[in-house]
Design brief:
- The chain is α+β, with helices and mostly antiparallel strands.
- Helix content is 72%, strand content 9%.
- The strands form two sheets. A six-stranded mixed β-sheet has the order 6-7-5-4-2-8.
- The longest helix is centred in the middle third of the chain and has 94 residues.
- The protein is rod-shaped, with a radius of gyration of 66 Å.
- It starts with a helix and ends with a helix.
Length: 580
């Protein structure tokens, strides 16, 4: 994303602002919900107050039992019913449809019970008057003495007292006493016709009071349910309001916490995005001052630092080119200086070796010739120890003669006589010669060449000497059993010859000294063979390196100039049987 610095600043300021706006909108929405819920609470409280008013009028009506209080009672119930019925369906759904339907049904049932109770109260008045009338008649009848003697005036007066107590208290005790006394009339005067209307009126009173008590009980139960339902609805809505308020508070706290956390973080990130390119340039400049010219300023931000980074990288490109050119010149100078020192050292060694070889050559020839003549002159009668000594003198003189020859060869270091040579044939010819003179029957020799003919300009005798030394060392290292592989890779401007064996290998320290004059790991040997090879390859403008690891064989890689050949692989496998 291509953002300018001022774009980043606007983004850094806008994000906290958006968080505040989002939190404000969210809080506003919840406050609207709280306001709506508050209206529901007010509606529930209104219903609760109306139900309480109904219950108050219920108590007054039950106390006074007249038409005026019935009207107050019915008006209060109707008002509560109208309020419940006038609630909109949306509010009913929001608060709870089932609860409101139950409330409405309860109010209707309650209103029906009020009317039925009022009608029964009117009937009850008639029944009470009937009881009193029949009671008075019974008193008159008893007073005329035209009745059975079992009915006394005191008994009737006591009965009328129990009757008044029952009408006054209407409790179970009064009922039991009145009922028991009325039953005694039947027991005392079973066939008292004048007593029957009173007994019947009292039983009707019992029935009317019982029915009214049932209606009052149902009325009070439903009234209690109405009161409980409205209180429950009001309390539920209050809890919902409190929950909304708590939720709004939590959201506000969350927005505040988010703002407190994200605000500094966003400001930090924004400043980091602005400062980061400058810091990277400063860090790169510091590392470049320490000498690392490969670093470049990353061009990721397409802001005001973009042009600065481009110019900075262009400057580094020019500086690196200058530095690389200087490094190459210094490396070349160091190589030339090392070659000069090495040449002087080798020249000094060569001069010393040449002098020593010439001084040793004449007496060595005399020893060698004398030992050869004595061996020929010694007959059968010559003692064995003399023959053995002469053979030892002859063998050791031959060894010294070879050492002297190596010294002279190393000292002379003649320049190569270049001519066109076919490399595949030269290598196979060298191995055939060695196969006839060394124990190489169990050596598997492989030549892997990518062309049938590889023609190079070289001194064939010196190249033969190179491969003789390498092959002889490999055969000797493998103790006559193993694999010797030569691979030739023709490249555009050079030729690589890779000679690998499966011998025991050598340590890293030995590999580093392997081309030094007079360095050897053998009990017998001058240590000049690989030094001579090194000189020959260098005089051919080539390079030879060694790679080896103990237990994993040794590989010599020779690089020579030239090597233009047809790319056609032809692998030769030569064993001892092929040489024979």
């Amino acid at each position: 994303m291509r953002l300018k610095i001022w774009h980043k600043m606007i983004i850094g300021i806008s994000i906290p602002s958006l968080i505040v706006i989002f939190g404000g909108l969210l809080s506003y929405e919840y406050l609207n919900d709280v306001k709506k819920r508050q209206e529901f609470v007010q509606l529930a409280d209104k219903l609760t107050q109306q139900v309480l008013e109904v219950r108050r009028n219920e108590k007054n009506f039950l106390l006074h039992k007249d038409a005026a209080y019935y009207k107050f009672f019915q008006d209060a119930a109707d008002a509560a019913g109208n309020s419940a019925n006038n609630i909109s369906p949306e509010i009913v759904e929001e608060i709870g449809k089932e609860d409101f339907l139950q409330l409405r049904r309860s109010i209707q049932t309650y209103s029906g019970l009020i009317y039925e109770l009022y009608v029964n109260y009117q009937k009850e008045t008639d029944v009470v008057e009937k009881v009193r009338e029949e009671g008075r008649k019974l008193e008159t009848f008893v007073a005329t003495k035209k009745h059975a003697e079992e009915l006394s005036t005191s008994f009737i007066l006591h009965l009328r007292l129990l009757e008044k107590n029952y009408m006054l208290f209407r409790d179970k005790n009064s009922f039991n006493k009145l009922d028991s006394t009325v039953s005694q009339i039947k027991n005392l005067v079973p066939f008292c016709i004048e007593c029957t209307p009173y007994v019947k009126a009292v039983n009707n009173l019992f029935a009317a009071y019982s029915k009214n008590d049932l209606l009052i009980n149902d009325l009070q139960v439903i009234g209690s349910k109405l009161e409980e339902s409205t209180n429950k609805t009001a309390e539920s809505e209050r809890q919902k309001v409190n929950a909304f308020v708590s939720l709004t508070q939590r959201y506000l706290l969350l927005v505040l916490a988010l703002l407190c956390i994200s605000g500094p973080l966003i400001i930090y990130k924004t400043s980091s995005y602005i400062v980061a390119p400058i810091k990277r340039l400063a860090e790169i400049t510091r590392k470049i001052s320490e000498g690392n010219l490969t670093l470049r300023a990353p061009i990721r931000e397409h802001d005001e630092t973009y042009t600065l980074a481009l110019s900075f990288n262009t400057m580094l490109d020019h500086l690196q080119l200058t530095h690389e050119s200087l490094e190459k010149s210094l490396d070349l100078l160091r190589d030339k200086q090392a070659q000069l020192v090495e040449s002087k050292k080798l020249a000094s060694i060569g001069t010393l070796a040449s002098g020593v070889a010439h001084e040793l050559n004449n007496p060595l020839n005399n020893i060698y010739t004398t030992a050869q003549r004595l061996i020929k002159k010694s007959g059968q009668e010559c003692p064995v120890f003399i023959k053995t000594g002469l053979a030892d003198i002859f063998g050791q003189s031959m060894r010294v003669k070879k050492i002297v020859g190596d010294l002279l060869e190393f000292a002379r270091g003649r320049e190569p006589q270049l001519r066109e040579v076919e490399l595949n044939g030269l290598i196979t010819g060298v191995y055939r010669q060695l196969g006839n003179s060394m124990d190489a029957e169990n050596i598997k020799f492989t030549l892997d060449s990518r062309s049938e003919e590889i023609m190079i300009n070289a001194d064939p005798e010196q190249l033969e000497q190179v491969f003789i030394n390498l092959f002889a060392n490999a055969i000797d290292a493998m103790s006559g059993a193993g694999s010797l592989k030569v691979k030739i890779e023709a490249e555009k401007d050079s030729l690589r010859i890779i000679v690998s064996d499966t011998g025991p290998g050598m340590s890293r320290e030995t590999a580093e000294k392997i081309f030094e004059p007079f360095f050897t790991t053998k009990d017998k040997g001058t240590g000049l063979g690989l030094a001579i090879i090194f000189n020959i390859i260098q005089k051919h403008s080539g390079q030879i390196i060694v790679g080896s690891e103990e237990g994993k064989g040794t590989t010599f890689i020779i690089t020579l100039p030239g090597g233009q050949a047809a790319y056609r692989k032809n692998e030769y496998v030569i064993s001892k049987s092929d040489i024979d």
